[in-house]
From TrEMBL:
Key words of the record: FAD, Flavoprotein, Oxidoreductase
Cellular component annotations (GO), alphabetically ordered: cytoplasm
Name of the molecule in the record: NADPH-dependent 2,4-dienoyl-CoA reductase/sulfur reductase-like enzyme
GO MF, one example: oxidoreductase activity, acting on NAD(P)H
The species this protein was found in: Allocatelliglobosispora scoriae
InterPro entries: FAD-oxidoreductase/Apoptosis, FAD/NAD-bd_sf, FAD/NAD-binding_dom, FAD/NAD-linked_Rdtase_dimer_sf, Reductase_C
Amino acid sequence: MTATTGHVVIVGAGLSGLSTAEALRAGAHPGPITLIGGEADLPYDRPPLSKEVLRGERQSTALRMADWFAEQGITLLTGTTVAGIDPDSGTVDLPGRRLTADMIVLATGGTPRRLPGGVNTLPTGHPALHELRTVADCRRLTDALRPGTKLAVIGAGLIGAEAAASAVARGCHVDLIDPNELPLAAAIGPEAATLLHRRHAAHGVTTHQAGVEHIHAADNDTVRIVLSTGDTIAADALLVGIGITADTALAEAAGLAVDNGILVDSRQRTSHPRVMAVGDASRRHGPDGPLPRVEHWDHALRSGQTAAATILDTPEQPPRAPWFWSDRYDIHLEMVGHLDPRAQSAIRLHTDDELSIFYLRDGRCIGAVTVNQPLDARAAQRLIDQHIPVTADQLTDPAVSLRQLVRGR
């Protein structure tokens, strides 16, 4: 079974779970929908946590208010932990009761990776130790970031770098630690990664290309971080931002196929016909094996919509190039499509701080990275999705209108 008009239980109330529920109702699903979230908050948007919320510019990132769920006939259970699922019977076990579902959608997301115990010797709950995944994490970190606070950030990926920039805006002194010479180069290419990483020094952040050998508690609830270079950093607060691990515990216990994520097909169906998976926890299985797991906002939104279309037995969405963005300091970065270092690259330079790098194969754009050029990103999305022929000379020439290229002129 896949399509159903019956009860759909969605485990996980993040963006992917909410988008599944929303798309089901938009598609006139007639049956009950139950959305279960482990956090006490209403479903919320995560990307602003490391940016506007951490800077104190925004308080709420709720995606929908409580009355919306009532209007849509969606039962929202917050602060609720799911103990287990039984795909064969369709049961979902909650504290003190059991739900029966015709379809279960796992939108369980991920949990922050933690440093190994041999490196991090801080006791559980040490006041200086932070991660940034939930609203509660953000509130706690925000309270710690007062002007003059010494913050150490381990991991210069998207979250770590954004949090470092937000801490600078709050008047903190920041040490940013990453073993890679050029963080994010594999994801966004060396040109954009160089520009972004240099911004840290320009805003007073001290960057360290090093691993972490040891973290131990110091006086007055501070910490000391010993680096592989032999240097030692003293910090009032420590943020560990080294990625997430897919939360597959429920899927594994239920006997579903799991491999660094819950394996799904192109319609978000798992190895059991009564269970689907969406968002960060899901991993697409292609014809040649599992594809890389995707953790971006756009994937969470679209995978939920795809799952809903499968349940509604409606056609699959037209394919669209993946997309993500990041903001730090005065830089707005967007990545569209796929970065292939073997592909031909074409750099469209607007100013020193505004550029776009396009990647081409066989006369078609397959990916683009834009810095402070959102219109170029929109054009790249259409060039990729519509398979429009284009040359490197056209893309590098600022006199050539990308809008006209998209329109085929």
